[in-house]
Request: fold
Amino acid sequence: MKIEHCVVGPLQVNCYIVYDDESREAMVIDPGNNADEILDIILGLRLQPRYIVCTHGHFDHIGAVSAVKKKTGAAVVLHREDLPIYEGAQDLAALWGFSMEKQPAPDILVAEGDNLSIGENTVTIMHTPGHSPGSLCLRHNNLLLSGDTIFAGSIGRTDFPGGSLEAMKQSFRRIIDLPAETKLFPGHGPLSTVADEREINFFIHEL
Ligand SMILES: [Zn+2]
Ligand SMILES: [Zn+2]
Reply:
């Protein structure tokens, strides 16, 4: 499995394009903005996106879902507990002074332990509430796409509607208990590893 990425939108979201080399099947994670740039990568690599996965429903992670779905026909995937946040994302965007078109309803609502396949690769959903009630991470072998749950050295805010510091503590614990060599692909900022986060993440002292 391979991972491409681009940084999209005013809040600098990492949009990842995860794909299988053989079959060219792909999933687009958090297409928050800049649909043209995302579609250029898909076209350039001759990929066939099967899924558009939103790690959570905040506007900065979903703004290009509609455009990418229209061009690729991929199924939109969201954790069931973030549906109200996804559906109300335009309002949160407006509150922040941004505008966003209405996004299509998710095609697949997932939960802890559900699997998504691209080619021969299976990606497993980890439900990691805290930043939002339905925040999810995607796991494949030693790779974890971690959304806004964990960043290099920090964590996602827990003070948005539906956020929970207590839930974040449990989700964070699950992530740093993964094998040390696990590579982290966060929703914002640089990549990291579980080994590095055990050393540098401030939140480890808050558990
Ligand atoms: Zn967020
Ligand atoms: Zn975000």
In short: Residues 2-206 form a domain with the Metallo-beta-lactamase; Chain A fold (CATH 3.60.15.10). The mean pLDDT is 97.
